[in-house]
Each structure stands twice: as C-alpha cells, then as structure tokens.
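Case study B.
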Amino acid sequence: DTAVSQTPKYLVTQMGNDKSIKCEQNLGHDTMYWYKQDSKKFLKIMFSYNNKELIINETVPNRFSPKSPDKAHLNLHINSLELGDSAVYFCASSRDFSYEQYFGPGTRLTVT
Amino acid sequence: GQQLNQSPQSMFIQEGEDVSMNCTSSSIFNTWLWYKQDPGEGPVLLIALYKAGELTSNGRLTAQFGITRKDSFLNISASIPSDVGIYFCAGSPNTGNQFYFGTGTSLTVIP
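Model:
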C-alpha cells in the first residue's frame, strides 16, 4: 500500500503553461507539505497544511498555489511556469508538526 | 529559512567499510531525523531521535542525538552497495515547528 502518492511522476511542459501536481496520503495524518528539491539536491519547504489550513508559506512566488480539498489531499497548482521552476517536487505528510515526515516519490517537473 | 550543515558533502568508500557523517545546527533542536534518498525516489525515514544523548539503531545504522542538541551523527557499519544514496538530516527546534533539512551527504560504495 502506497503511503504518500503523487501524480504525475514526470511533467514536461512549456514556459507560460499552468500545471497541477496531485498528492494523496493514506496514513491518516493531519499535516501535509510541499517541498522543492533543486539540482543541488537541497530540500526546501514551500507550504505546510494542517487540517486543511495553510500553516507555512515560505517565500514562494504567488504563481504557486496549494489546495487541500480534505486532510488526505494536498495539490499544488503552478501558473505561468518559468524555466526556474524546473525541479523535483515532493509531497510529504506527518501526524502533526515535529513528527516524522513521510515523503512521496516526487514529481520531476521540466519546463522548456 | 534555516539550513543545517552536513559533513562530509560526499564520500567514496570501499564495500565493507564503516561510514560516519554528521549534521550541525546553529540553534538547539528537540528532534532529529535521518533520511536516505535513492536516485529518482523520495527520502525514506531511517531513524528518529527525540532526546539529547539518545543512541538509536536500525540494522547496520546507528544515529545519535548530540548532547549539545545542536548536532546529530549517523554511522553505517559494514557498508554494502545498496547503501548508495544521499543521506539527509532534519531537525525541529520545538514542538509545533517545521523541520529544517540538511544539505545532504552523498555516499558511493565501491564494490
């Protein structure tokens, strides 16, 4: 059983397009996250949701908009994609803040 | 945001050797986590530490929560080829706070 799943695994698109990445967790966790991993492998938190409410919103362009329809899902919508958005995006979940986070398999976004 | 420093940045070792890596922070943390990331995959949790001085093992892996609460260590004994990957530490300063991730240690095991 997959604990944290993301779709799609790969996403190739052109500059200026709008795209979404979906995330689902079946662990019954209350907190979900989006991370961006750049080419140097740095993991940087973008957003955190707790019980469907936005808790953390790091310095991320407002072209990025997370949406949590329920506790088990946290989707990431990106408008007007730019070359610099190319990265691997990871969804994660945890029971609550400060508890272990479990990561999804990642979505490799390539903007051409 | 805060970023933890991991050392070394990369390691190339012979199969069978032991490995040591560490993670340091400028501030005190109450929880430390260690993850391993295989190529093309998401980070997988290896060990979680909750108490200063705590030593926890998971098979050939052993991690320690530093006494100062500003560092943590991960050791891998008798390395094997499948240990290859990037190892990340993560720390949280307080209950209810987010985790900050380290810069990663890339491990290569030469058969």
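DSSP finds no helices and eleven strands in chain B. The remaining cases will be described in the next quarterly update.
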